[in-house]
Design a protein that fits this description.
Blueprint (H helix, E strand, L loop, with lengths): L1 E6 L5 H13 L3 E6 L4 H8 L4 E4 L6 H6 L5 E4 L9 H6 L3 E4 L5 H16 L15 E5 L3 H12 L3 E5 L5 H6 L3 E3 L2 H7 L2 E4 L13 H6 L5 E4 L8 H10 L4 E4 L6 H8 L3 E3 L9 H21 L9
Parallel strand pairs: 1-2, 1-3, 3-4, 4-5, 6-7, 6-9, 7-8, 9-10, 10-11, 11-12
Bound molecules: 3-phosphoglyceric acid.
Amino acid sequence: MKVLVATEKPFAAVAVNGIREVVEGAGYELELLEKYGSKQELLDAAATADGLIIRSDVVDAEVLDAAKNLKVVVRAGAGYDNVDLAAATAHGVCVENTPGQNSNAVAELVFGMTVMAVRNMYDGTSGTELKDKTLGIHAFGQVGRNVARIAKGFDMQVSALDPYCPDEVMTEAGVKPVHSVEELYGDNKFVSLHIPATAETRGSVGYDLLMRMPKGGVLINTARKEVIDEAGLAKALEERPDLKYVADVKPDSAEDLKARFGSRVFFTPKKMGAQTSEANINAGIAAARQTVAFLRDGVDRFRVNK
Ligand code: 3PG
């Protein structure tokens, strides 16, 4: 049996070695397809794969059609909006993610970008500090919880909104639960986004919420570009020269936003949140173990499709 690791944005070499050990140690063949330039390369490599490990690589019906032997796709990471779950189910393919494995890396980047924003992109001018400032965490999953933990070290006042998370989980973490987006954006100078891209969340953060933010508000997005209404974001930035937007997920209108708002916006050139050796090792090896566990024993604990 063959396990294909298809990563347009490769894992650190040390993580690839760990994945190889797990896969080959189970007696399976490992094929590595990194930095591929065309979808055809993915289709060709997937044609003979029994298991597939990916990151943000798109697995759609075309890939699933081409991958005749495929039984399991493991997204080494949290978000699986890059996988067509319905098509996978129709093809009898199990889809899994590796929740929590890269969340500290993403949370640390939240603060890397937030400090950069309040220090005016390190341009030499006087900025502000995070101590005693308010931070709203939009979704209290694994990344949101790590963000809260680190924010406490900065002495920030932390609130969170998450209809899927009991209030007690937040209060135990020293976080104030809030119950509406209006409250979250209205009361917090910093808002960090951790919602997944779903039919409900796409385009859900835009003009109205941004306009509610207190003076000097900073929106930090290490989640998905799709959750932002980019026209609304641009309008709010235009009307409120005090607002800033920093994102680890380059918007479609990045060039326009950069041209209009200069250093009030920042975008990483490629999604960098999970790009650490530690996150690559954690998520990559978890993905390898889950792939082997499924192929060998049918274990599907982290399955995300029906
Ligand atoms: C995730 O959903 O796990 C993160 O967005 C990381 O994505 P990446 O593996 O493409 O860096």
